[in-house]
Amino acid sequence: MLKLQTSLCVIAHSSAAAVFFGVLTMGLASHGEEAGSRHIEVSSQDIVTVRPDAAEGSKQGLPIFPGISEKTAGSKGISMLRVVIPPGAAAKAHIHKGYETAVYLVQGRVETRYGPGLSKSVINTAGDFIFIPAEVPHQPRNLSDSEPAIAIVARTDPNEQEGVVAYPPAQ
Prior knowledge:
This protein has helices spanning 17-26, 70-73; strands at residues 2-5, 9-13, 39-42, 47-51, 64-68, 79-85, 94-96, 101-107, 109-114, 120-125, 129-132, 138-142, 149-155, 164-166. By secondary structure, it is mostly beta strands. The chain has two domains: 2-51, no CATH class; 64-166, Jelly Rolls. Strands 5-6-13-8-11 form a five-stranded antiparallel beta sheet. A three-stranded antiparallel beta sheet has the order 10-9-12, with no helix packed on it. It has a two-stranded antiparallel ribbon with strand order 1-3. It is globular and about 45 Å long.
């Protein structure tokens, strides 16, 4: 069994899923959960569903809704989350040290400056799939002044924020 600690609603799909879900939503301790702390035991053979109930801050300076990660689901080689870029806002310039990133832009129009000195630029719109190689400096910016941009991000880093490094690095 893998013991997870999270503030998210995590559901282990198994023959007891319906009972387990009821226990989670009622806040009772059962099936490995400790009331109040949300320690949840999941075997490596369970399918895990994560339903984030609130945004968290990120090193990139944007609100994220954590989904799949080592912390929330016991993943070993991937993380996945939803990111919201508020109207007119931009992420802090950064790289993902040693990890590739795939993005699906659900809503909005985003300009991403990237490369050495952030000298290159690409504009993406809702429906685009975007690949960012490891170590490539980048800074996405929402081009709308009235609507948030929303994206689903997958990364080859199971600890999502661990490999995020500011760009340019502090001297």
